[in-house]
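ping. complex inputs:
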Amino acid sequence: MSNTLVSSPPASPRVALFVTCLVDAMRPSVGFAALKLLQDAGCRVEVPMQQTCCGQPAFNSGDTKDTAVLARRFIEQFEPYDYVVAPSGSCAGMTRAHYPEALADDPRWAERARKLGARTFELMSFLVDVMHYKPAGVTFPATATYHDSCSGLRELGVFDQPRALLGEVGGLTMKPLEGNDVCCGFGGTFCVKYPAISNAVVSEKAAAIERTGAQVLLGGDMGCLMNMAGKLHRNGSPVLVYHAAEVLAGMADAPSISARSSDKG
Amino acid sequence: MQTSVISFKARADAALADPTLKLAIDRTTGTAERKRAAALVDFPQFEAARERGKRIKDHVIEHLDHYLLEFERNAIASGAKVHWASSADEASRIVVDLCRQAKAKRVTRVKSMLGEEIGLPHALDAAGFERFETDLAEHIVQLAGDRPSHIVWPSMHRTREQVSVMFKKAHRVPHKDETIEAMVDSARRELRDKFLSADVSISGANFLIADTGATCTVTNEGNAELTTSPPRMHIVTAGIEKLVPSLPHAFALLRLLVRSATGADVTQYTTFHCGPKKTGDLDGPEEFHIVLVDNGRTKMLADTGLRDMLRCLRCGACMNHCVVFKQLGGHAYGGVYPGPMGAVLTPVFGGLKESRELSHACTLNGKCQEVCPVDIPLPTLMRGWRDRSWREGLEPSSMRFGMGIFTFVASRPWIYRLGATVAVRMMRLFGRGGWIRGMPGLGPWTAHRDFPVPSGRTFMARYASGEGRQK
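pong. complex structure:
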């Protein structure tokens, strides 16, 4: 592949990292954490340089035609790899669960979508279910709570995997979050189409997070994390917010999503 | 069925601004959620039962013509008269005409969402009948002159404190103690003579049993039995999707329905009506009519994007677990059916143009499908309405234009990278201390929460310059 950059030696699965729009623009550290974790797990990780967006905003807006354009692009970009991994249940779920729907009018493409979907994973479920990976020597002395983002939970069955991985982190105490599987009110374009409803939902989520007494909120999807972090910060809460991959890769020394960030980079 | 002319957003804003409404919603949906969860712990076969329930409904929907005719045959044999209504108006007209034939003055009604769907309360009032709602919550709705806000708890939007005030004003011998028991007694005193003196009773049906021609109605108050026994005529109105082949199928679905709705194992009263009073019967109606209502159902049957919705048992679990419903309550949805199932059904009855917002006012989080006792893919069906709305040109032009630009950019990686870099720089200009409190284009977000400033160069730019490669 002339347009990709090989970043680890062979003799292990060839994995394409789908960075996702929000990680690319908002929080590259999550992408680098994903790279490191996949490399540590023994994968040859590549980042296809022509990748853009999976098309979920178009799909959820009802624009199936434009979704199909982006879905076909995505399939072409990622088809050559053994696996596709994204640090997001939402984006992985789009590819895995919804591409066949978006391409239903074209059986050949729908079939290609299904085949690629079967090899597409959310990061933490890939590490545990496919690579049987356990982080070693990682410490993060804090009490944390975990929000299960809806797409990962219900479309991909991501629930035990992040908990198993985080259980290996030294010094980390997990506290249960009441309503851990209740939507945070982000919902992609929902949060800007219906800001007042979204706010009412995330306000309840922020209150539940505060009630845990945890110092840190962890999750696996940037959209939800930004929504909850933004509300916690507006409320003046001291709770720090990280993507679980950052903690697992020992890269949570960067400023939290919700705390005052430095201007480096 | 009426669809409100006020916009969804205006109704939603009104609901969000009402703290008493929120208290009332939280009390009801909170209890419902807890009780359903407890019921599932005690019923480990739930998943298997759910799969079976889904298969029963799908089978009936697949062979609806067969079971409808079988039901009609057996109902007629039991002495019932069967009427067919293709629309809401036709169904209401049939009921009103039957009441007139019976020379009725006073009509009692058992709560039925189908009755609401076909606009029956309004039609009965307009025809000049003295209508009494006998379900406690519907009685509250009638006293208040408003509409049901939930399909299982129609007066969910009222707190008990508000109901107390209402009863004291309206009842002849109101309660003195501020207890729920005393308030229920007050309603009982008020309604008892209405039950006994009505000329016609009207109920819905949870199931229509094809091989016996019987109808099945479940309640927790016993009002269905008391309502339908004394009057001369009993009219059942039911949607044609309520059919089941035989009694065991009804019980299989009841196990799912009741646990999903109230968390109980079984309803307090499960009543079967099979024809009018027979020789030797002590009581029962002299005439028994069944009105089978289509009102869009055959259209849904023919539509692969909506057919799954015909499985719906009307348990309300989807709304009890919906983050949007729990903020707004039912009235904001503007139709008879609220919440996720309402967002799917309302456009069938009222037209997509008037209700396109309902399917958008959803985060597609999938909880509704997870709790649905017959596994209706509600998020997929809602997305289906969004797709239709887009294809029919009902979505705002700003959205269509924006999505076109977005796809153009996302199909061209170099423009996309440039766009991401520019966006990141812009956001960093507006950031203060790591956060953006306001920025053109981010208003809907920053009105309520802060937006984190991007941490620096994009991932793709950093990766392209060699970062993150394995050492």
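Chain A touches chain B through 82 residues (CB under 8 Å).
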